[in-house]
Design a protein that fits this description.
By secondary structure, the protein is mostly helical. It contains 14 helices and no strands.
């Protein structure tokens, strides 16, 4: 009996939520989705239950160990539910996934949530893409710890929609506003954190470079260019930053 088959048997035999949660911790640690066949992944997702995982994700922050519930929920979603069959349920959890990412300090959770959104950006329909982009543009992207990755994701999604003729004036206006906010977060003189400033600079460039048409619509982008011209240390780090 394989590890997955053994977990399937134990998941089906669970008598309460506590037993199931304990097994989901195991699922999040030992199961590698890229090594599963579609058939096994479907069996595992049914045994786990998306509704149960969604409940874990929505645990109130005031509850003890709430961060652990969120972390396991995000990890299991990424392991078991990244398939076309769960696009709609995943999109329905998008707002909550963003909330816990901003609230949590767990690096693993942040990476798992980012992985879920990256999957969605490539898999969803244009109509769903507009909805997802609107959700992402409704938050302060510069507050994300891994701002470069999120700016890259938003830029990718916007470019995909824009090139396909699916973006609208409202979405474009929100996108430009988000780029402006990131740019205006850059400290042009004596930054308190060089690393954070560098991340914001790269994030801003990721957003603006999504389509050449945006350059002329974002006057404050000159701030980025000015910082790069006057700061040799930031310029050196930018050139050597592997994420750009």
């Amino acid at each position: 009996m394989t590890t997955i088959e053994g977990l399937l048997k134990r998941l089906k035999a669970c008598e309460n939520d506590s037993e199931k949660f304990a097994l989901l911790i195991v699922v999040s640690k030992v199961i590698k989705p890229d090594l599963m066949s579609p058939e096994l992944q479907e069996k595992l997702s049914q045994a786990v239950s998306f509704r149960f995982v969604s409940r874990l994700l929505r645990v109130d922050s005031r509850r003890e160990n709430s961060g652990l519930y969120w972390q396991i929920a995000a990890a299991v979603m990424k392991t078991c539910f990244l398939s076309e069959a769960y696009l709609v349920p995943l999109l329905e959890c998008a707002d909550r996934l963003i909330e816990v990412t901003l609230e949590s300090k767990e690096t693993d959770l942040k990476q798992d949530v980012l992985g879920i959104f990256q999957f969605l950006a490539h898999a969803i329909s244009p109509e769903q893409g507009v909805q997802l982009l609107d959700k992402l543009l409704s938050v302060n992207v510069q507050d994300f710890e891994d701002v470069i990755d999120w700016c890259s994701l938003i830029g990718l999604l916007f470019r995909k929609l824009h090139q396909g003729g699916h973006s609208n004036s409202k979405t474009e206006k929100s996108y430009i506003s988000t780029a402006e906010k990131v740019i205006n977060s850059v400290e042009t003189e004596s930054p308190t954190s060089v690393d954070k400033n560098l991340n914001l600079l790269v994030g801003a460039i990721q957003l603006v470079s999504s389509t050449p048409l945006l350059y002329q619509k974002i006057p404050s982008f000159s701030t980025v260019l000015s910082v790069l011209r006057t700061s040799s240390s930031l310029k050196f780090q930018l050139i050597n930053d592997k994420s750009f």
